[in-house]
Input
Amino acid sequence: MFGPLGKKLIAHVSIGGFSFSFDLITIIVSWIVIALLVIFALFLRRSLRQDVDEKPNRVQALLDVLIDLVKSQLTSSFSSDQLARDLFPFIATLFMFILVSNLISVIPYFESPTKDLNVTLSFGLLVFFMSQFFAIRKKGVGKYFKGFIEPYPFMLPLNIVGELAKPLSHSFRLFGNMFGGAIMLSIVYSFLLTSWGLPLVVNAFYGLFEGAIQAFVFAILAVAYINVAVET
Amino acid sequence: MLQEAEHVVSQISGADIATAAKYLAAGFVMGIGSIGSAIGEGIAAAHALDGMARQPEMEGALLRTMVLGQAITESTGIYSLLIAIVLLFVV
Output
């Protein structure tokens, strides 16, 4: 049932004639990331006060500042305040999950789930379907399909390809950055295992800096794609 | 000497040449493919810096737009990385 592929641990399952393959390490680390986020959220909730009139404590003040920051960023990026309010939980959840799963690769023996194309492609498709759903809800079905034959009817194939290329490039970008960082890390580790300082610096760059930048880029591109789909 | 060289050449099979071509192609793909995205990202950063120096109060919006533009510019580099990975590990 389990067969090693390089350093990966793949589970092959066949259900009713269809065979599926699962990368177990990706799934396990994804669940660890989810557990970390949930534990962190529960931990933060304990320090929140229910009474509005009371003076807020330090954690609550910090959370207020953070949420205000994200909200102001979203309202300035989205065309309407209603859209920003609707999509705030989605974008924030996406950002937090990708950020934590990028940063977890700093811990040795933890492979970040975003290094797997299956994970990033599912995020890309999620953003794609969200953008189409919000576009249909905003414009109505007729205007939505009319948008594909604008400005001229012969642009229809180009518009469809352009729309379908967005989730592909969106997910390949995150995957390529994370996988390329992992390849660079493995090369540096195989060359320079004797000099202890440099791998730490490279690991910090690819794990912390690139991870944070790429999570930010993914969230901001999701905002831009949804905004473009709703507006035009 | 000449006979030795001929012997070595006769040892090279088609599979060896294909492997050599694979590694060469992967190297060329990464080297040439990253030129464009590197130049594009540099131009974006330079103009964003110009804008920030001229109007420091616009820094937040400029930074966000710069990162967005750089991420889109980067995609050609990412595609070449993917093709290099496919050449090395899949083909």
In short: Residues 56-231 of chain A form one domain. Chain A has one domain: 56-231. Chain A touches chain B through 17 residues (CB under 8 Å).
